[in-house]
Amino acid sequence: MTRLPAAVAFLVLIATAPALAQGGASFDCAKASSAVERTICKNSELARADREMAAIYSALAAKLAGPAKEHLARDQVRWIGNRNRACSGGADAITDCLKVRYDARAANLKVLADGIYPFIGEHAVYKAGKVGNITYSIDTRYPQFEGATADFSAVNRTFADDARKSDEDSTPKADSGVEREQTWSYEQAFALRRPSTNAIAVAIDFYGYSGGAHGFGGTACVLVDLRTGKAVQPGGVFAPGDAWLKLVVGIVAADLKKQFVKNPGFDDALEPANLAKTLRDPSHYCWRADRLELIFNAYDVGPYSAGAYQVVVPYGRLRPLFRADGPIT
What we know:
This protein has 329 residues and is an alpha+beta fold. The chain is built from 10 helices and 9 strands. A 6-stranded mixed β-sheet has the order 1-2-3-4-5-6, sandwiched between helices. A 3-stranded antiparallel β-sheet has the order 7-8-9. Strand 4 (199-209) and strand 5 form a beta hairpin. Helix 1 crosses helix 4 (66-86), helix 2 (35-42) crosses helix 5 (91-112) and helix 3 runs parallel beside helix 5. The chain starts with 5 loop residues before the first helix and ends in an 11-residue tail after the last helix.
């Protein structure tokens, strides 16, 4: 088995050594050497989150061997480095950043432990600066499928290209009104879901502000078939034909019509042809272990002020139309 580099092994040890008896962080707070570590040690909630995340990591590492264990170790070191770079500034800013990151990491580690290890790494783009009078920060996290059982190059390229585009769009340019004092930001995280042993669903959550009347944000989901390495369209989950689309259109239209009573949306969005077109877009489909969550961001079916709409469909209503050889059965 390939031996981990000393620096990697050391950082993993620091990240995962339990301190349950002291009820503190997972590392020795007497040796805290950075603002991030000191913030964790001074905050009991963060110390508990660090300890719990380390326990989840350790439990997963104990189940793995060989390349899978080495991949997890390297990804944890990368996560720690990304955490340290992104969580900066004043004490309150560091605290808020750490809370979000620990919650997301713990949840994703649990998914990585559910079944065969899928070799998914967390990559990140982080930068901050000032262009003219515009101060900006970009904190983008995105997944990369790094296993060797299938060719994930296309789906990985999509995640990486989208991250680079968000970086480019969120970085002020000379013609961005730099004479006015503004604060721009873009934040993106991802949550992993395991709808079946053969698939991973990725939910990309994003929010940004780059001038204008208000910010922009939402959720976009991608279903990846671990057997083929490809992103799967809704039609790849359901049996051939449009019976599934007719069913989903009916379910969604009835649910949204009820939601529009208290939270008005665009009535014409519920017209069958318009809704069918919307529902062919795979980014709305957030597949879970027992249900499908359909997410409609601002402007998809309603105005910005209405926010996002969500329709939840138990698999019991959909399973008769699933492909027998599809990624979800």
